[in-house]
Amino acid sequence: MKRELVYDVGFNIGQDTAFYLSRGHRVVAVEADPTLAEAGRKLFSRDIEAGNLEIVNVGIAQEEGSAEFWICEGKPEFNSFYQGIAARNGYQSHPIQIPTTRFASVLRRFGTPYFLKIDIEGNEMLCLDDLNPSSLPRYISIESECAVDAKPISAADGLRVLHKLRDLGYQSFKLIDQFTFCSISVPPSLNYIIDSMSRKWLMRAPLNVIRGTHRLSQHLMTKPKLERSLRWKFPLGSSGALGEDTAGTWISCEAAERAYRQHRESYFRTPGVAHHSFWCDWHAKLETQAPADRLNRSVRSEERNIS
């Protein structure tokens, strides 16, 4: 396996970093919470000493300096610059002051990664805004949307991430459901159909009490199959596999948008689901393309935005 530079932007408790290290990669992890960053340094002390990992305790923001950051008491996954995120589901939260930096500064310091994972509860777009079109990661994984307060967001808001990736020069995409690790497409893939039927029939009464149905479901569902293939257990909350190891085939931006709209609409038809509970990641792949071509594409995008 080739050793690559991977960014884990949103280290949290280190679940994704642990996986990237297990695959032999060199990791730069960015974590805003000083308590989590220090815990990570202790947990991964050997990897740090070996030069395989660097944990940068800083928040990604619009400006260099310092800012108020909200700590969610009881669920660190909700830590955020936005109080509304840190206080989700009734959790208590409190503010602290942390150092901040632009994502461009991280790129200048450590270089362009092969794979870039972004999950920082509300500030994800700041990372994409600082990417240089002439030097892009081959693969990106980023949360599709993140409501920053009690107000629901629209599909158009969520699609800003996909369109930004397209305008940067990415041509191939996957929409990964983070609960099942299935790839979402229209029409649904055979893999998705089998996963859904297994969850509906084998994991629920009355069939779930029959001996052997649980084992059968684990052989059919996407996430258990992926874990066996990679020999790694992905806890709830982890981002999962890197680019080519994710389920499904790469699709165009137009097909990805159709899949997102349909999947999101179906999800929110379920009564009582929280407006912030839709949880998918965009995976983007950069095909072979000359830097000048990517730069011209970015310039055209900026011209559209100005007009």
Question: Keywords, please?
Answer:
307 residues, alpha/beta, 8-stranded mixed sheet, 11 strands, 20% strand
- What does the overall shape look like? globular
List segments where confidence is low: pLDDT < 50 over at least 5 consecutive residues: 290-307
Give a count of the beta strands, DSSP E runs of length 2 or more: 11
| Cα-atom radius of gyration | 20 Å
Biggest sheet, strands in spatial order? Answer: 3-2-1-7-8-11-9-10
Could you explain how this protein is built, in words?
By secondary structure, the protein is of the alpha/beta class. The protein has a domain at about 1-130. About 40% of the residues lie in helices and about 20% in strands. The chain has helices at about 15-20, 35-45, 45-50, 85, 105-110, 125-130, 155-170, 190-200, 215-220, 220-230, 255-270, 290-305, and strands at about 5-10, 25-30, 55, 60, 65-75, 90-100, 115-120, 140-145, 170-175, 185, 280-285. An eight-stranded mixed sheet has the order 3-2-1-7-8-11-9-10, with helices on both faces. A three-stranded mixed sheet has the order 4-6-5. Helix 6 (about 125-130) links the parallel strand 7 and strand 8 (about 140-145). Helix 7 runs antiparallel to helix 11 and helix 8 (about 190-200) packs antiparallel against helix 9. It is globular. Mean pLDDT is about 90; it is low at about 290-305.
Could you give a quick summary of the protein structure above?
The chain has 307 residues and is of the alpha/beta class.
Helix/strand layout:
Blueprint: E1 5-9, H1 15-22, E2 26-31, H2 34-43, H3 45-49, E3 53-57, E4 59-60, E5 65-73, H4 83-86, E6 92-101, H5 103-110, E7 115-118, H6 124-129, E8 139-143, H7 155-168, E9 172-177, E10 183-184, H8 190-202, H9 213-220, H10 222-230, H11 253-268, E11 280-285, H12 291-306
Parallel strand pairs: 1-2, 1-7, 2-3, 4-6, 7-8
Antiparallel strand pairs: 5-6, 8-11, 9-10, 9-11
